[in-house]
Design goal:
Elements: E1 5-6, E2 11-16, E3 22-27, E4 31-32, E5 50-61, E6 64-70, E7 87-93, E8 96-102, E9 113-119, H1 128-134, E10 141-146, E11 164-170, H2 174-185, E12 193-200, H3 207-216, E13 221-227, E14 242-245, H4 250-254, E15 270-275, H5 278-284, E16 289-291, E17 299-301, H6 307-311, E18 319-321
Parallel strand pairs: 11-12, 11-15, 12-13, 13-14, 15-18
Antiparallel strand pairs: 1-4, 2-3, 5-6, 5-10, 6-9, 7-8, 7-10, 16-17
């Protein structure tokens, strides 16, 4: 099959009994989505954890910082990993090794560094690693491992793969969206139009950067952000542009003034990428699922398309869950 691989086929297996009769045993079939990451890794890049040094730290919103880490001396950039890039950060905290995946926001061509958006969570809410990163000082080191190239439906991103790309995220889920958008918009080969819709609590993350992209590429990039708990008397008005109030709903995913002249969601040249918390994914497109394929770990799968995107007329093939 073109879009699926099988772990096992439907197979009737003959099994002889003591009476020489044949009993048929039906084995189950597990259909796997195409791989989400490349199975190969660029030879010139380290594929193990590296101790990277923090060179800059700046606050970008309440409980959020952008951290800049220096790449190893033999790694000028991570462009060979394509967009969006992914990393895993590991740290020993209170006698326990904690690790978490992050998405850099810096351009993949950035010379000698990568920027990472992090959020500080209270330790009692499982935020030990996030708090540690938030509290890091310039000169501190942390273990970081590069992930293989991200794949969309089994293949890496290429210029003009889609005519219109809709990016939907909440909280720090905007990180891979921002990197992907800036890469596309600054590529002279690209004509792709991008709509970015994000849900936040009281502050829009990366707002200055998103506004700058809107100003630089008014015909190709539009972003619409929603605040579920805006600061009182801030004067936010949901006018279809900029910052609105409330939670992301079906009207936002179907509003042509938000979706940057997209003709219809069923167009095969349109694609939607979603990134956020499990609860957010459940509402927008259905969660990523994990299945047992006989190994030590459960295998992540995209799962069926559910939620608001299904209601809006999108298909499973048109949606990628990060």
């Amino acid at each position: 099959m073109s879009v699926f691989s099988t772990v096992a086929r439907h197979l009737f297996c003959p099994e002889r009994t003591s009476s020489s009769t044949i009993r048929r045993v039906l084995f189950s079939t597990t259909m796997l989505d195409p791989p989400s990451f490349s199975r190969t890794f660029p030879e010139h890049l380290p594929n193990t954890f590296q101790a990277l040094t923090l060179t800059q730290s700046k606050t970008c919103a309440t409980d959020h910082k952008i951290l800049r880490f220096q790449l190893p001396t033999n790694v000028p950039n991570v462009s060979s990993l394509n967009v969006p890039t992914g990393i895993k950060i590991r740290q020993l905290i209170s006698g326990q090794v904690l690790d978490k995946s992050y998405s850099p926001i810096s351009n993949i061509d950035a010379n000698g560094f990568m920027d990472v958006l992090v959020k500080q969570y209270p330790f009692q809410q499982g935020g030990g690693l996030g708090k540690h990163l938030y509290d890091m000082k310039v000169g501190d080191i942390v273990d970081i491992k590069l992930k293989p190239t991200k794949l969309f439906k089994g293949t890496p991103y290429v210029p003009n793969r889609w005519q219109h790309l809709v990016l939907v995220g909440n909280g720090t889920g905007v990180a891979p969206m921002y990197q992907l958008a800036q890469h596309i918009l600054h590529d002279p080969q690209e004509t792709t139009k991008i709509t970015m819709i994000s849900q936040h609590r009281s502050e829009v993350l990366m707002q200055q950067e998103l506004d700058a992209m809107s100003a630089a590429f008014p015909e190709r990039f539009r972003h619409h952000s929603l605040l579920s708990q805006p600061v009182v008397n801030e004067g936010h008005k949901d006018d279809g542009h900029g910052v609105g109030v409330g939670r992301l709903g079906l009207k936002h995913l179907m509003d042509p003034t938000i979706l940057n002249s997209m003709k219809e969601s069923t167009n095969a040249n349109n694609h939607c990428i979603v990134c956020g918390t499990d609860q957010f994914l459940e509402s927008i497109c259905g969660n990523i699922v994990r299945i047992d394929v006989g190994g030590k770990k459960l295998k992540k799968q995209q799962g069926p398309l559910l939620g608001l995107l299904k209601e809006a007329g999108w298909s499973k093939e048109q949606v990628t869950k990060l």
